[in-house]
């Protein structure tokens, strides 16, 4: 358990870092988050809501990978924390903003997932895809494009590969 000062409030907040995570000075860790495997040059903000990255999930390096969320407001009474399930691989330069990602998901390099997106288990989101606000991605499919659309069902080898990918990046 550690502490860091929120840049805008001067209050101290708690964050939890898994023992396996080695803190790199190039990873800005803000408050209100639980994390596991994060690579350098990833920005994770927990300033107005929570960020949870479950076990065996990894966020790959690359300038520009950003994890954030949306705060509760009159326009957004339910708010959108960022919750990432188990065995998830998030590719280089992906942007995840206020969504829920299930287990065994691959988010391709440069993909953008906007507020309120729900990604069910066993999904692949292709490189450079943009998932529009409030969209639900059904389990067992590949999604491609901008806006992202269901392209085809995943093969059994691709589903097995989701777990392989996550295990490959987590020490």
Write the layout of secondary structure elements.
Elements: E1 2-5, E2 12-17, E3 33-35, E4 37-38, E5 42-44, E6 51-53, E7 58-59, E8 65-68, E9 82-84, E10 89-90, E11 95-97, E12 100-101, E13 105-107, E14 112-113, E15 118-119, E16 123-125, E17 130-131, E18 136-137, E19 141-144, E20 149-153, H1 156-169
Parallel strand pairs: 2-3, 3-6, 4-7, 5-8, 6-9, 7-10, 8-11, 9-12, 10-13, 11-14, 12-15, 13-16, 14-17, 15-18, 16-19
Antiparallel strand pairs: 1-2, 19-20
Q: Which range does the strand content fall in?
A: 35-45%
Topology as a string of helices (H) and strands (E): EEEEEEEEEEEEEEEEEEEEH
Shape: globular
Distance between the termini: 20 Å
Count of extended strands? 20
- Overall structural class, as computed from helix and strand content, comes to mainly beta
Low-pLDDT runs of 5+ residues are 1-28, 30-34
Mean pLDDT: 75
Q: How many strands, what sense, and barrel or not for the largest sheet?
A: 8 strands, mixed
- Radius of gyration, Cα only, in angstroms? 15 Å
Please give the share of residues in helix: under 10%
Quaternary state of the chains: single chain
Strands ordered across the widest β-sheet: 1-2-3-6-9-12-15-18
Count of DSSP helices? Answer: 1
List keywords for this structure.
171 residues, mainly beta, 8-stranded mixed β-sheet, 7-stranded mixed β-sheet, 1 helix, 20 strands, disordered N terminus
């Amino acid at each position: 358990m550690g502490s860091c000062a929120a840049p805008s409030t001067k209050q101290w907040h708690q964050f939890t870092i898994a023992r396996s995570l080695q803190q790199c000075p190039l990873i800005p860790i803000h408050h209100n988050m639980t994390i596991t495997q994060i690579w350098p040059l990833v920005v994770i903000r927990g300033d107005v809501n929570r960020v949870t990255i479950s076990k065996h999930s990894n966020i790959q390096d690359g300038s520009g990978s950003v994890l954030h969320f949306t705060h509760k407001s009159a326009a957004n009474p339910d708010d959108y924390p960022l919750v990432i399930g188990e065995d998830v691989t998030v590719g280089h330069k992906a942007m995840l903003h206020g969504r829920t990602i299930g287990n065994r998901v691959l988010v391709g390099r440069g993909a953008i997932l906007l507020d309120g997106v729900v990604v069910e288990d066993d999904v692949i989101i292709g490189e450079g895809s943009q998932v529009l606000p409030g969209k639900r991605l059904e389990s067992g499919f590949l999604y491609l494009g901008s806006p992202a659309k269901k392209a085809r069902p995943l093969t059994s080898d691709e589903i097995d590969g989701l777990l392989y990918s996550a295990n490959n990046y987590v020490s």
